[in-house]
């Protein structure tokens, strides 16, 4: 059966439509609720393609199942797609008897709340999510919580500052997942030398590469996803 999510924005690193479709047809299906959220995101929101989508969503769920975090933080909720995938992983962990984890997801743009809150609160995973409006870099520490996993997907120009704000809040051995770290390939394209988001991502990649406090690897999935582990 063909996947419902054969959208050009659900891309793989290969950038070929046939391979994209092949990948989507050989991984877990996108849950119906998330498919409807993806559609609503793209119909009603400007820049709907910022939402994670089918493939990355399934990866986020699986990473939560692998890491088994107690507390997770997300920087950049947007429409709530990735948040609900992280929460789905937490629910699966609980069903497997691994304790009840929780996600704190921050969105800096208060105009996003009217769209996103009903989608989060209407989800079967609502009890696993606290949706907060504010700048994660300044607000997260006020929660008084230590995290085992972070998904960083906010402003590309301030990734380094966000990373520095989060790192002290992460437990030893915790994972930070940083999204879009290849920025559509612009990181190696001199034509983007003056583009502030590209400059921000390059600065972040150089910074993390030289950071001895962490172990890191870049997955060339979609726009690039960097997995960073805070050393014990
Ligand atoms: C790429 S979208 C997030 C997409 C979402 N994580 C997903 O994968 O479905 C980025 C969002 O981050 C928000 N944002 C940017 N900087 C932020 C910050 N410092 N704290 C919280 N949200 C931030 C933006 O307003 C925007 O809605």
Describe the model:
The protein has 232 residues and is α/β, with parallel strands linked by helices. It has one domain: Vaccinia Virus protein VP39 (Rossmann fold, 3-Layer(aba) Sandwich). It is 37% helix and 19% strand. It has eight helices and seven strands, in the order H-H-H-E-H-E-H-E-H-E-H-E-H-E-E. The chain has helices spanning 17-24, 32-44, 54-67, 81-95, 113-121, 136-139, 159-166, 196-209; strands spanning 71-75, 102-107, 129-133, 147-152, 170-179, 214-219, 225-230. The chain has a seven-stranded mixed beta sheet, sandwiched between helices. A hairpin with a 5-residue loop joins strand 6 and strand 7 (225-230). The longest helix has 15 residues, at 81-95. The radius of gyration is 17 Å and the shape is globular. The chain starts with 16 loop residues before the first helix and ends with a strand. The model is unreliable at 1-12 (pLDDT under 50). Residues 50-52, 75-76, 78, 81-82, 106-109, 112, 135-137, 153-155, 162 line the site of S-adenosylmethionine (SAM). Residues 50-52, 75-76, 78, 81-82, 106-109, 112, 135-137, 153-155, 162 line the site of S-adenosylmethionine.
């Amino acid at each position: 059966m063909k996947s419902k999510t054969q959208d050009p924005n659900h891309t793989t690193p290969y950038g070929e439509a046939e391979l994209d479709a092949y990948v989507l047809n050989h991984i877990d299906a996108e849950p119906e609720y998330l498919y409807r959220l993806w559609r609503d995101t793209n119909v009603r929101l400007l820049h709907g393609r910022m939402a994670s989508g089918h493939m990355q969503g399934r990866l986020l769920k699986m990473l939560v199942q692998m890491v088994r975090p107690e507390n997770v933080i997300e920087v950049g909720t947007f429409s709530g797609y990735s948040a609900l995938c992280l929460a789905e992983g937490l629910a699966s962990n609980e069903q497997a008897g691994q304790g009840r984890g929780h996600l704190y997801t921050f969105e800096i743009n208060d105009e996003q709340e009217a769209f996103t809150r009903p989608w989060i609160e209407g989800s079967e995973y609502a009890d696993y999510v606290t949706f907060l409006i504010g700048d994660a870099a300044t607000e997260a520490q006020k929660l008084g919580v230590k995290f085992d996993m972070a998904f960083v997907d906010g402003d590309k120009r301030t990734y380094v500052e966000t990373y520095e704000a989060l790192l002290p809040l992460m437990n030893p051995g915790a994972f930070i997942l940083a999204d879009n770290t290849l920025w559509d390939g612009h990181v190696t394209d001199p034509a983007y030398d003056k583009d502030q988001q590209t400059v921000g991502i390059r600065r972040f990649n150089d910074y993390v590469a030289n950071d001895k406090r962490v172990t890191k690897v870049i997955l060339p999935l979609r726009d690039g996803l960097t997995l960073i582990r805070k050393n014990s």
